[in-house]
Amino acid sequence: ELEAFEKSFAEFLGTKYVVGCASGTEAIYLALAAMGVGPGDEVLVVAHTAVPTISAISMTGAEPVFVDIDPKTYVMDVSKVAEKISSKTKAIVPVHLYGQIVDLEPLLELAAERKIPVLEDVAQATGATYKGKQAGSMGAFGAFSFYPSKNLGAFGDGGAVSTNSKEGYEKLIALRNYGQSKRYYHDSIGINSRLDEIQSAILAVQLPKVAEWNERRRAIAARYTNGLKDLVIVPEENSVSTHVYHLYVIQSNDRDGLQQYLTEKGVGTLIHYPVPAHLQKAYVYRGYKVGDLPVTEQITKRILSLPMFPELTDEQIDYVIQEVRTFHQKNPGAQL
After folding, report:
1. What is the DSSP string of 233-258?
2. Euclidean distance between the first and final Cα of the chain, in Å?
3. Interaxial angle between packed helices 2-13 and 197-206, expressed in degrees from 0 to 180 and rounded to the nearest 10
4. Which of 26, 207, 231, 322 sits a CA distance of 20 to 30 A from 223?
């Protein structure tokens, strides 16, 4: 089942290889390990992401170096990458957050000039495209999560790494299975990170439905945007990519008040993510302080994720729109 899913997913992505593993976190770790990233190295990444992205970097012994985000798309600001590159930089990890792809063409050009491999974090963007190419097919590696809430979800944890490199593929196969070259012969230090047969079978059934589910997410997003764009800041799509709306994230001048009001009205919301990684206690040792990533820090005070999943009905969407509108009409200071 695993081999069959890996083959199908590679065909879906348009890559030569896919290697299933236990989670999205370990997918990032395994890809970095296959690149040879380790202690003493630096990896460029954003602080506005789920902390597991950063945890995977730490698992290699390397250090995260944080790049600020674009204020409109919430993903890595590619114009700010070059200034962060040092002699220690061994990888760049653009995170395709919320279903939005980083502007990859200039990033890949810069990375090629500096001979630094790019690992796409596609945990929230399975099925998104950039200039006609699938997310996860353009960097040296792509890392995916199949956590149940993702656009392509299993019934438990799971992940995968995509690549077009035969050498990279062979390293991944060994690394996910204790570093074995063949049974009981260990040529490298690996881990146990299997995507099990049951989850693989489930994912194989789900995969043909991803495009349909993503189109429904886009339709839901369009309905939200049409109903809210005059009162709050709604998501902005890159003109050369397809946003698949793992999350639908707005900005409000009174985010906390809006969240409390929606909770009272039976609308579940979350903040993705309230504390950026560079200000988390776990990463205080890196020496970052408030003000180092101004766009990231401003955004995290204003964002709110509205309900988003393909099974939402138009009536439910309209109810959410109605309540967001009601709150802002009652609180003019919260409006744009």
Report:
1. BPP---TTEE---SSEEEE-TTHHHH
2. 51
3. 40
4. 207
- 29-40 pLDDT, tens digit per residue, is 999 999 999 999
Model confidence pLDDT, tens digit, residues 114-166: 999 999 999 999 999 999 999 999 999 999 999 999 999 999 999 999 999 99
Which is nearest to 45 in space by CA: 323, 286, 313, 319?
A: 286
Q: Could you tell me which residues come within 8 angstroms of residue 16 by beta carbon, excluding any fewer than 6 positions away? A: 10, 163, 164, 165, 166, 169
CB 253 within 8 A of CB 301: no
Alpha-carbon span 144 to 199, nearest angstrom: 14
Q: Where are the beta strands (DSSP E) in the chain?
A: 17-21, 42-46, 63-67, 89-92, 119-121, 129-130, 133-134, 141-145, 159-163, 180-182, 185-186, 241-242, 248-251, 303-306
List residues bridging with 133 in a β-sheet: 130
Burial 205-230 (b: 16+ CB within 10 A, else e): ebbeebeebbeebbebbebbbebbee
CA atoms of 122 and 117, how far apart (whole Å): 16
Find how far residue 91's CA is from the centre of its chain: 16
SS3 at position 75: coil
Distance CA 241, CA 101 (A): 7
Q: Give the H/E segment covering residue 3.
A: helix 2-13
Q: Which of 151, 309, 150, 330 is nearest to 252 (CA)?
A: 330
Q: How far is the C-alpha of 167 from the C-alpha of 163, rounded, in Å?
A: 10
Tell me the two tokens of residue 241: 């990519």
- Dihedral sign from CA coordinates of 114, 29, 121, 13: positive
pTM above 0.85, yes or no: yes
- The Cα–Cα gap between 41 and 139 comes to 19
20/173 Cα distance (integer angstroms)? 9
- Token pair recorded at residue 8: 């199908």
Residue with tokens 């820090």: 297
